[in-house]
Design the sequence.
């Protein structure tokens, strides 16, 4: 495998506490019940704009009003709520030491992504980095991985996508890229298996074994 393409939130980093805190703030500001949180979490892995439309459009709430409430939380001031999953920093360092090339395909915008990567010294680990700022169509559309192929000159089968959501795996399938599902994110093994990954890793130790078998 010439390139491992990582998702970020829910795959490398446990961002659920930050995501839930931000949405709880927004729901309170909008006067909406906390029960809406469950619907919001169904769309984690999509660009936040798509998640807002899917969650709040059926409730009749104005998109701009919801987005303003969500952003008023001040996510940058609460990024201490995010931490890498156990074993991920060590795995990334090991892969890098073995000369494995790595990239990121994420639904997070570039500015917060780079800021968060810098917390753990990961800036130089990934190239290319594809965010919604570089594509017209976000996940699950295959454009992110198609752009990655164009930038690297690699064929689809030379890339391995690692992600925790059906949106990651559907993107990979539609781009002709093999994938590995991780189970420490937001979705069940059954939901991920339906998207046809090559393998499923319930934790970082299992993921390490899978990835090293590809090297």
Sequence:
């Amino acid at each position: 495998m010439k390139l491992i393409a990582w998702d970020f939130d829910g795959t490398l980093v446990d961002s659920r506490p930050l995501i839930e805190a931000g949405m709880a703030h927004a729901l309170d500001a909008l006067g909406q019940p906390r029960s809406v949180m469950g619907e919001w979490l169904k769309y984690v892995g999509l660009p936040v704009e798509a998640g807002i439309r899917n969650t709040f459009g059926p409730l009749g709430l104005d998109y701009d009003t919801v987005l303003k409430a969500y952003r008023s939380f001040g996510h940058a001031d609460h990024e201490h709520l995010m931490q890498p999953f156990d074993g991920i920093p060590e795995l990334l360092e090991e892969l890098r030491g073995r000369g494995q090339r790595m990239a990121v395909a994420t639904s997070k915008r570039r500015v917060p992504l780079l800021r968060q990567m810098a917390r753990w010294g990961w800036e130089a680990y990934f190239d290319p980095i594809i965010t919604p700022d570089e594509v017209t169509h976000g996940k699950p559309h295959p454009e992110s991985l198609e752009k990655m192929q164009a930038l690297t000159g690699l064929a689809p089968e030379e890339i391995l996508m690692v992600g925790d959501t059906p949106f990651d795996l559907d993107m990979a399938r539609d781009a002709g890229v093999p994938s590995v599902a991780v189970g420490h994110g937001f979705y069940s093994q059954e939901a991920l298996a339906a998207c046809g990954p090559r393998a499923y890793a319930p934790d970082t130790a299992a993921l390490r074994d899978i990835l090293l078998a590809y090297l």
